[in-house]
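As a warm-up, study this chain.
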Amino acid sequence: MPKCAPSISAGGDTLDAASGEGDGRLWRHKVIEDISFELPEHGSLAVLGRNGVGKTTLLATIMGHTTLQSGSIQLAGTEIGSQPIERRSLAGIGYVPQEREIFPSLTVAENLTVASRPGSWDLARIYDLFPNLAERRRNMGNQPFRCEQQMLSIGRTLMCNPTILLLDEPLEGLAPVLVGPTLAGHRADQTGGGPGDPAVDQHVRIVLEFSPDVIVLERRPIAFAGPSTTLLGDDALMASLLGVKSEPRPG
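Now compare it with the structure written out below.
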């Protein structure tokens, strides 16, 4: 069997997350359950589903931001489900959250290097992938445009040189002209021995063309797991699971 990057397995078990406050009391509810998948080393997996089915919660749980009530999360065969966030980061998990979480008091260059670790991703390579960041490297973190802040969030995580990269809505805010270079950079990194890459994104067709495999979440166990080409080639299945059709994008 190929060596696996993270594998989350919870057959019949449940992932719960603290979800809010009422009358001064913190309350919990079941967010996702009965999810099991594996990501091969250097592989890419798209995590799709309608809004509110738990895509972000799944990635946050792998990273350690929510409570794993039962089940197992493994990285290269090592159980990490009870480890704190910093241990998971040091073990090689990188997380690009939907909120970006840029440090506004640091420059663009400082945001990129604040948590950097030795590896194939360095400032030169990030600036080559995202030339806009090179032009704005002396700007404060809150000054770049929205799309540039998304580049900065991705670049900062890549500078940690993770073995697996969790991407939550990685294309949100990016201009269409930047989507291709962004995905090309990830693809080149994978084929060159870079991190595995589960991507959560609403740009369904683009993500399916990039990721060879996909899981679709619903308010139940995984509704679909298999090759992305299966969804791309089945309009009816795509519509029933995601509410979109798989017609080709304009050239």
